TRAP transporter small permease (Rhodothermus marinus), 168 residues
Amino acid sequence: MDRLKRLIDQLLAILVIVIMAVLVLDVIWQVFTRFVLRNPSSYTEELARFLLIWLGLLGGSYAAGQRLHLAVDLLPMRLQGRRRKQLALVIEACMLAFALLLIVGGARLVWLMLYLGQTSAALRVPLGYVYLALPLSGVLIGFYAVYHLWRGMRELRAGVSDAAASSD
């Protein structure tokens, strides 16, 4: 499972970097056509919006996998040892529940958009493909939550110290 996580980490990092690079180029092109050519490109604003959606959701998935997401650590900082690890498992279970909501709700939205045949105004891209980022990020967050639950339960059973667990 560790090898699979590393592979997903690497692929997701590359995908986020590529999306960010395309977004930067798109915005540069928009600025160039608007202010230098005085003829703004018709598709760049919409493309930037769609890329930002994908970047935010996939980047958030990556952050969740690396445990770099925002967290309120008031309670975990007051706990130690086994209780802290148990709380971490509860938090990961909540992450898994959130991921399931993203998967189910996102899949319903994708299906509805594809069923209705709605397309974007400028790019004429089916909106279902844009919203596909929701269930995909749900799958990724769910995978990471299951991974962290699996590791956390192994550490609890093995009685790993806080110092060893925090090196994750």
Observations:
- The mean pLDDT is 93.
- Residues 2-165 form one domain.
- The chain is about 80% helix and 0% strand.
- The longest helix spans residues 81-116.
